[in-house]
Design brief:
2 strands, about 425 residues, single chain, two-stranded antiparallel sheet, Ammonium transporter fold, mainly alpha, globular
Length: about 425
């Protein structure tokens, strides 16, 4: 067993050494001179997006039972290491390399980060270093599979989860990022608007979560006994704070669009939080801390695709509508028999879907309310295609991951808790 892990470590080190001596594979295009203000902002935004992954770790970790807290939190944190290595090797190339049919990037374009340097790039980072653009995009690739992990918390083997995480990043996330954000991507050329990842991040994660919940089946004990609600509150604060980098940073410059995205992000989340609490009260429930936190995150999710394209009034409506729909979906989920442990699909999946539809409605000058139908119709078509691709593709990846190493823990390991059975640790 030790020899196997030493072999894996050796392969990583060998890849790094090989890249050092490889000739340049890609000759980067030269953009404009660096803009110090834009560069400073994008360094800040990149760090803010990274903070979202520890935030998600606390958010998810506080919701599970005490015997699964460490396992659940680690499933988020470990992506900082695993996805970074995959990104440097081929992930960035698959997302932003030379386009192959508008669907995926050539994996050799920036293989092992060859050609990713301190100069600007006219197609991606006109005023900041190309390497900084890549680091910013890396943080999106890191958090997306960690969102999925909440669906099958408390019953997945850690080693198998690592396999799925890498496969998801390369075969689901990368094509969606390329099609949506690459200048030659199919969806981008259709005019699909996804400012910061409603489709690429949240809908893909939501559909993968639904597929995982179905594939792995329900837990033996479907209990919702949050181990530490203050962790959830802390995680919400970190997510909200980091989301300013997620959305406002997607302007890729320190400009008015960044300010608009910042404003809309804060507004939609605030409205969604309040809506969730009041709607719970109207239904005879108490205004819980968990409800307030979930509502805030749903608002953040829903505004993500629209953040830089809509007015603050539209942001209010987006936060309000998304909170109502996700809240009602949670009630329906309880009757479905699908054990999505931390409600990833009702919150992230549906939140992203609502956000993408309403982006097509409210986007300035091209939205449905401005009398334009093309963007709205392309958004509906894209939603169908992305949902089918993410669900079916992820289900295939679960089958592959399970064939490599069974994903579901046995009944005794689940009863004991994943902290002990997978990591030998307790809180």
């Amino acid at each position: 067993m030790r020899l196997k892990y030493l072999g894996h470590l050796g392969a990583i080190l060998f890849g790094g050494l090989l890249a050092t001596f490889l000739p340049e594979i890609a000759q980067p295009k030269m953009g404009e001179p660096l803009n110090p203000g834009d560069t400073a902002w994008m360094l800040t935004a990149t760090a803010l997006v990274l903070l979202m992954t520890p935030g998600l770790s606390f958010f998810y970790g506080g919701m599970v039972r005490k015997k699964n807290v460490i396992s659940t939190m680690l499933q988020s944190i470990v992506a900082l290491g695993v996805i970074t290595v995959a990104w440097i090797a081929v992930g960035f190339s698959l997302c932003f390399g030379e386009s192959i049919g508008g669907v995926i990037g050539n994996p050799m374009t920036f293989f092992m980060y060859r050609g990713v340097g301190m100069a600007t790039h006219p197609d991606f980072s006109a005023t900041v270093p190309f390497a900084l653009f890549s680091l910013f995009q890396l943080k999106f690739a890191i958090i997306t599979p960690t969102l999925v992990s909440g669906a099958f918390a408390e019953r997945v083997k850690f080693s198998s989860y690592l396999v799925f995480m890498v496969l998801f990043c390369l075969f689901i996330y990368a094509p969606l990022a390329h099609m949506t954000w690459h200048p030659d991507g199919i969806l981008r050329n259709w005019g699909v608007l996804d400012f910061a990842g409603g489709t690429v991040v949240h809908i893909s994660a939501g559909m993968a979560a639904l597929a995982g919940s179905i594939f792995l089946g329900p837990r033996k004990e479907q209990l919702h006994d949050a181990a530490h609600v203050p962790y959830v509150i802390l995680g919400t604060g970190l997510l909200w704070f980091g989301w300013f980098g997620f959305n406002a940073g997607s302007s890729l410059a320190a400009n008015g669009t960044a300010v608009l995205a910042f404003l809309n992000t804060n507004t939609a989340s605030a409205v969604a939080m309040i809506t969730w609490m009041f709607f719970d009260r109207l239904r005879g429930k108490k205004s819980s801390a968990l409800g307030a936190c979930i509502g805030a995150v749903v608002g953040l999710v829903a505004i993500t695709p629209a953040a830089g394209f809509v007015s603050v009034g539209a942001a209010i409506l987006i936060g309000f509508i998304a909170a109502l729909i996700s809240n009602m979906a949670l009630s329906l989920k309880a009757r479905s028999g699908v054990d999505d442990t931390l409600d990833v699909f009702p919150c992230h999946g549906l939140g992203g879907i609502v956000g993408m539809i309403l982006t097509g409605v409210f986007a300035k000058d091209v939205g449905l309310i401005y009398g334009e139908t093309q963007t709205f119709l392309y958004h509906l078509l894209t939603l169908v295609l992305v949902m089918v691709f993410a669900f079916c593709g992820s289900y295939v990846l679960y089958i592959v991951s399970n064939a490599i190493k069974p994903m579901r823990v046995n009944e005794e390991e689940e009863r004991q808790g994943l902290d002990i059975s997978q990591h030998g640790e307790t809180v």
